[in-house]
Amino acid sequence: MRWAWALLLVMLALPSLAQERSAMARVDLAGSSLTAEGRDKGKPRPLELRLGLSGPVPYRVYFLDGPPRLVIDFREVDFSAADADALAGRSLVPALRWGRFRPGWSRLVMELPGPYALRLAVQNGLQGGAAGAQVMLRLEPVPQAEFRSRGNALSALWDLPEPSLPAMSATPRQNQVLRVALDPGHGGHDPGAEVGAIRESAVLLSFARELSEVLTRAGYDVVQTRNDDSFVGLEQRMTIARAAQADLFISLHADALPEGQAAGLSIHVWNPDSDDRAARQLAARHDRSDLVTGLDLQGTDDQVAAVLMDLARQQTQPRSEAFAKFLLAELTRAKVPMHARPVQGAAFSVLKSPDIPSVLIELGFLTDPRDRANLFNPEWRQSTSNAIAAAIAAWSQDDAVRAGLSRR
Q1: DSSP secondary-structure letter at 187?
Q2: Closest by Cα among 391, 319, 327 to 356
Q3: 144 phi, psi to nearest 5 deg
Q4: pLDDT tens for residues 2-51?
């Protein structure tokens, strides 16, 4: 919750920022409608909402329960000249309202006749080259057990990023012991890089268990995103870390690139603008696991939420970068062989969490003989684990000092 308060302060302190980032669009009732499929009016039917706008805008869609509601946040739409009750098809739902939510943001709330799921959400330009855009959402009724709400109205008020998949119950924080989420990459049907009989997923799980023991002995709480050779989706990995109320997220990989292209340990922090070719190759490899299961990664990061996530990262990103620096210092002191560019930015999906400082460590490359030997060397693994633990200790102390200074 700490980051949520910081995010709220940012949003309240910079109302003009939200105004500047998106030109005001107006709703067009003539190009808007709500329709239902079928003729059975005795139970919920599939719904299609079309909202005509004078121009495209970022938006976000989610559900709330008690009663079931569809919520769409826009940045920003002027609803002042349009009556929600005048929307064609308005009588198909119990209630519909829209208006300005806060500076820079507008909100549409549609009460639903039962639990629904979002099957399609797109925003297209108008046909024939006409100015404007249209947001179209398709909803289908689902059993209550399949209804995925964001939680409650308070979460909508605070704009908290909620888990998209159920993961685990949050472990109550009985003390202030720092909690680290370890994320051994790949697993299950996605073995990651393979060199002969060596599978990246198995190497990472083994290293994560050893690192977990080192961190636990050092006094930290540790949670792992997977504890066996099972598949865990990329977004669920962040969900697990958030549900555990982790203070730090460390993703572990040992990838493969053409021989001679990369060697040595490297540290990655979030940077969607990175133009490094090798980083793009690795991002494609890391993210392919969700594509294998049929999940569209682009759909999990809609344009809407990205705005709020960027604001949250104004606090979290510097903390991630600070940890990367401490980690580099400790690994260098331990004489761990490093990549020519030891700290890099990359658009790895597991680094997208806006509320938890996160890094991805490429322990080495299975395609490099020396790296491959190190990954199976008990002394190297122990030395690397000790360096990571030392970096966490130094970073947490520095982070606490900086947090204290920021509150003054």
Answers
A1: B
A2: 319
A3: -55, -35
A4: 444 333 333 333 333 333 334 578 999 999 999 998 876 668 899 999 99
- Reading the block at residue 252, the tokens are 């572990």
What would the pLDDT profile of 113-128 be if each residue is shown by its tens digit? Answer: 999 998 888 888 776 6
Same domain (yes/no): 139, 202:
no
Statement to judge: residues 148 and 234 lie in one domain: no
Query: Dihedrals φ, ψ of 268, to 5°?
Result: -120, 140
Contact criterion met (CB below 8 Å) for 55 and 48: no
Closest-CA residue to 132 (of 34, 30, 49, 18): 30
The Cα-based distances of 16 to 27, 58, 301 in angstroms read: 22, 17, 24
Question: What is the spatial distance between Cα 69 and Cα 111, in angstroms, rounded to a whole number?
Answer: 4
Domain that holds residue 82: 22-154
Q: Are residues 373 and 303 in the same domain?
A: yes
CB atoms within 10 A of CB 160: 19
pTM of full prediction above 0.85 = no
25-36 and 47-53 beta bridge pairing: antiparallel
We report the CATH number of the domain holding residue 139 as 2.60.40.3500
One domain for residues 291 and 372: yes
Q: How many residues does the chain have?
A: 408
- C-alpha–C-alpha distance, residues 171 and 24, integer Å: 43
- Together in a domain, 143 and 184: no
